[in-house]
Design brief:
By secondary structure, the chain is of the alpha/beta class. About 40% of the residues lie in helices and about 15% in strands. The chain has twelve helices and eight strands. An eight-stranded mixed sheet has the order 1-2-4-3-5-6-7-8, sandwiched between helices. The longest helix has 19 residues.
Length: about 325
């Protein structure tokens, strides 16, 4: 008890301060080549969110994919990740998380790279909106998320029965990542190796738990458990992509999160790729593996007889579902 009290007083403020810091990110931001059907939806707590609906470039539809962008990016980054699926029969819905892009800002909320209940609410709002469309796909949706957007996709997929598949690029657990960094920081703050070895592992987990509670109070949010969501994901399939050279989220952290999931699941560690840079490192393999996942799990067969992109597109309500 004395040790836990000492750790709480001495190290929880340190971990909390570091937990709030934002690493130097270089998020993908693209100029939209086409704007699609602009829509505005509202999160369950009243925050307006901007979104765009892009119909497939085919005469029939294989499914609907919801794109969840990374921290500090916006919905237009969907073009680099999933726009090619439109030529295979998929409608794409991309939206801006709160405090990003054209979406509104949450009062007293300063987003960080960590997943909170606010991003989860935004993904729920996106699915709720899609269910109200006249061209709603009764087969449900697939979720594609990048980094923090992937974390949000996993949490929502585990609770929504009409999600039929999840693809993530660079997803990571809050708890697992914190623990890995705390063990690394221990080498700095606990200088003597013998002392580090004598401290039980549950003490490090305790410090992480206390730091999360402190952060939740100061940031006025809640950090959902991505590990718990992943454990509940099956029977929905999950295709996890991660960079071998990811210096933010080591592959070992991604593998540990992946181990929480049950089949069907697939993990691809992209050799030489950094955080959120897998598609740049292996563009052809990236497209091929994404195509294979969609071909195996989409509610309908992919469209083989593609229409020309230059041909006039049919309205979404007139297309065959």
């Amino acid at each position: 008890a004395a040790l836990l009290s000492y750790l709480a007083v001495r190290y929880v403020p340190v971990i909390t301060r570091i937990f709030h810091e934002q690493p130097l990110f270089f998020p993908l931001r693209l100029t939209p080549k086409e704007t699609g059907e602009s829509v505005e939806l509202t999160s369950e707590d009243g925050i307006p969110l901007g979104g765009s609906y892009f119909p497939a470039r085919t005469s029939s539809r294989a499914g609907v994919v919801v794109f969840c962008h990374e921290f500090l990016s916006n919905r237009w980054s969907f073009q680099a990740y999933v726009d090619s699926l439109r030529s295979l029969g998929f409608d794409i819905f991309a939206f801006d998380f709160r405090n990003h892009g054209e979406s509104g800002k949450g009062p007293d909320y300063n987003p960080t790279q960590w997943l909170t209940d606010y991003e989860v609410r935004d993904v729920r709002a996106a699915l709720a909106y899609l269910r109200t469309r006249p061209d709603h796909d009764p087969s449900g949706f697939a979720l594609f998320g990048v980094s923090r957007g992937g974390n949000a996709a996993l949490v929502v997929a585990a609770e929504q029965p009409d999600v039929w598949g999840v693809v993530t690029d660079g997803a990571f657990p809050t708890r697992g990542t914190m623990y890995a960094y705390i063990m690394k920081w221990a080498e700095i703050y606990l200088r003597y190796p013998l002392v580090r070895k004598l401290i039980p592992n549950f003490c490090y987990h305790y410090v992480a738990w206390m730091a999360r509670l402190s952060s939740q109070r100061s940031l006025k949010c809640r950090f959902p458990s991505v590990e718990r969501a992943v454990a509940k994901l099956a029977p929905r399939p999950w295709f996890a992509i991660h960079g071998e050279k990811d210096t933010y989220i080591k592959p070992e952290i991604a593998k540990e999160l992946f181990n929480y999931a049950r089949q069907p699941k697939n993990l691809w560690i992209v050799a030489g790729a950094k955080h959120n840079r897998c598609r740049e490192k292996e563009p052809e393999a990236y497209s091929a593996r994404l195509l294979d996942f969609m071909d195996r799990f989409a509610p309908r067969r992919l469209v083989i007889d593609q229409t020309e992109e230059s041909a006039p597109e049919e309205s979404t309500t007139a297309r065959e579902v």
